[in-house]
Amino acid sequence: MPSRTGGGGGAGVQLGVQLNDMFGVYYSGTGAIGVAGSSGATGSGASAGAFVYNSVMGDVTLANILQLGLGPSLDTLAFGSSDVSTSGSQATALGGTYFGVQTRVGIAVGGSKPGRHGRFMLGLEVHPTFASGIVPISAFLTIGGGSF
Q1: pLDDT at 56
Q2: What is the CA radius of gyration of the chain?
Q3: Is the pLDDT of residue 112 over 70?
C-alpha cells in the first residue's frame, strides 16, 4: 500500500500568567482536523480525524528567548481509517476523551524584557495522547504573537 498523503490544519490559543521573568503558567487549547488518502495497484485507503487538546502548561523562559513548556492534557479525539486491498479490507475507528501530554520548545523574538513589548513566537509542539492501547503523536510547528 502506498504511503498516505494529505493535509490538515488547526488553531490554538494560550492564555495565562507570567509569574516572573523566568516562569509562567497557562492554558493551551488546540483544535485541528486532517485528512489523508492513498491509492495504488494493490489497493486504496483513506483517513480522517479531528481533535481538541486542553492542556495546562508550566513554562520556563531561558535567556529571555528560549521557552520550554510541559503539562498534562485532556484530549478529545475522533478518528477513522479504511483500507481496501487485493488481500482484504480493514477499518479502524477511535473516539473519546483521553489523557495526553503537551510539550513545547519555542523562541520569542523582540522586546528586551517580558511584559514590556509584544513578541513574535516560533515553536515546536509535540503531543502524545494515551488512547485505548495506542499512542497517537501530533507534532506542530507554531507561529504567533504574545505579550508576557
Answers
A1: 97
A2: 19
A3: no
